[in-house]
Predict the 3D structure of the following.
Amino acid sequence: MIDVAPVIETERLRLERWDDRHTPLLVRLASMPEVMRFIGTGDPWPPLLAEDVARAERRHWEEHGFGWRAAVDRAEGRGIGLVSLNYAGEGTAGLDPEEREIGWWLEPDAWGRGLGSEGAAALRDEAFGPLRMPSIIARIQPENDASLGVARALGMEFDFATTGRSGERLVVYRLERS
């Protein structure tokens, strides 16, 4: 297993390895209809589900040496979202569960400032640098213009259209390591 930095700092973000301290952040984000509208069914998650997902993401770090990172606004010192790098897992038609997926969730008051692109670029660089991943993908609901913009800003390109675990329409964007 490759040892990656527990914290990555960008110009405006501190990206911290996902741990117990970050569970309340996920519970808060997952309860916001505007954040969840393009995640799975589009419905907010009950707190117990968010807590289960937070535990699973901590285990992902322990098993694989990479994973979700809490996005902390460096100026304010508070968690504003997360940026993820993990295995895609089962449930998306036409997608190998072993693919590495990059993703981003930000609270609404952080939208429109380029923070998603900034955090995702740091994880893209981690994926292709120390982790030496061959490629990364992003699964995005086609109506999610903001996330499509982040994927394109990372250099990702449309790969194929499919359906997700909950039957939602998805587009898969991909970037190969050069």
